[in-house]
Each structure stands twice: as structure tokens, then as C-alpha cells.
Amino acid sequence: MPIKSFLSPKALITFFFLLPTILLSSGCASSPDPIDHKDASRSVVFGFFDMSDAPSWGGIDWVSVKQYKPKKGYYAAAVKEGLFYHIGVPNGSFQVDEFGRNTRFYSNTRYVYNFGGKGRNKTGRIIKQPGVYFMGSYKYKNIDSGSIWKPDNFQMIKSEGPSEKVLLTKLLKIMQSDSDLSIYTHQIKRMKQRLNQLNKKRSK
Questions:
Q1: What is the pLDDT of residue 19?
Q2: E-state strands within 70-164
Q3: How many angstroms separate the CA atoms of 41 and 56, rounded?
Q4: Mean pLDDT confidence for 33-51
Q5: To the nearest 10°, the Cα dihedral for 204, 126, 38, 174?
């Protein structure tokens, strides 16, 4: 049950107090269908959240990517040290919806953040053909309410780094070193192609 909600057009953070049994069964958004590693029509989306200044210290555990066109759906992105990614989204329009940090043994609080924005937000990407799509790097920024009676708010501001190249290099290593991910050869091939494009841009 939520005990506090901080609302604004840009962001939402909700704190939950949950029983242990609820915590064990709670989940976040999931992909509406399994990802076939032979399916060459799927794309990679990825980005980065710096949550070092957030109250949920320690980063994030999950990111929900929302598809809003041509149909609605939700995809649960994997997360590693601020890098979030999904390697199997179809063509369509996507953006980050919610993200958060799960409760640890030392606390019964679960943090859920809404990236915010009316309609399309800054992470939005329109995928018309299979490829690799960078949703950007963002940093949590606290907004002081100026009052002890009014809760603070926050917004996710675009940051200069880590860059698309740095994050894509890291993601490629993750996929190539994981036997469950290395079978996605179509995605890996496109990631290498995108890295080559980025390297050529840098050399000009």
C-alpha cells in the first residue's frame, strides 16, 4: 500500500510498505511474448540511469519499457550497474515507463519511479526497422520543495555520459560472455555494426 506519492508532470516516486509474502510475489512489467533467437526482426534498446543522488541508494533493479504504438505492451529490461537493456523489442514506438529498486532485507520499502512526461518522453524511440536504439543517459536530480511539510520531487536530466559507445561496448561484452545471450547472433551482429558506425564518426 502506498504511503507517499510525489507527483509532477515530469516524475513520480512512490514508496511501498509491503509484507514479506507480497514482496516474494511482486513483479514488474514483462515481455508479452518469448524472444526467439532466430527472429531477425527484433531490435535492441538500451540506456543508462545514474541514481547516485536518489533516496533509493544503490542504483536500480528493474526498468519497464512501454510500447505505445501500434499496440500497447510492456517489456522488462535487464539492468546491470545502471545500464538497462532489452534485446527483443519489435517494430513500434517505445519509451521508458517506470523503473525502481526492490526491497532489501534491511528495509521493507520498495521504490518505484515514473520517468514522467505527458505522452512521449525523452527516452522515446520509434523503431521502423530492426536495429540498435540508444534511449540516452540520464541522472536523477532532486528538486527541493523548500518546505518540511511538502515532499521533495525529482526529474531525470540528460547527462553527457556514459556515451552510447561506452554503454554499447559494455552491453556487447555482457552478451558475448553469457551463454544465454550469446545465441542472439542477429542482435550481436547489429551491435557490432553500430559500434563501427560510432567509431567512424569519432575518427572524422
A1: 28
A2: 73-80, 83-89, 92-101, 109-114, 125-127, 132-143, 153-158
A3: 36
A4: 92
A5: 60
Q: What is the pLDDT of residues 168-190, one digit of tens each?
A: 999 999 999 999 999 999 999 99
What average pLDDT does this structure show over 53-82?
91
CA-based nearest residue to 153, from 38, 86, 54 = 54
Mapping DSSP to helix (H, G, I), strand (E, B) and coil, where does residue 121 land? coil
How wide is the angle at C-alpha 175 spanned by C-alphas 170 and 177, nearest 5°? 95
**162 preceded by cis ω (within 30°)?**
yes
Q: How far apart are CA 63 and CA 101, in angstroms?
A: 9
pTM: 0.80
Single out the residue of 81, 69, 71, 65 nearest to residue 31, CA to CA.
65
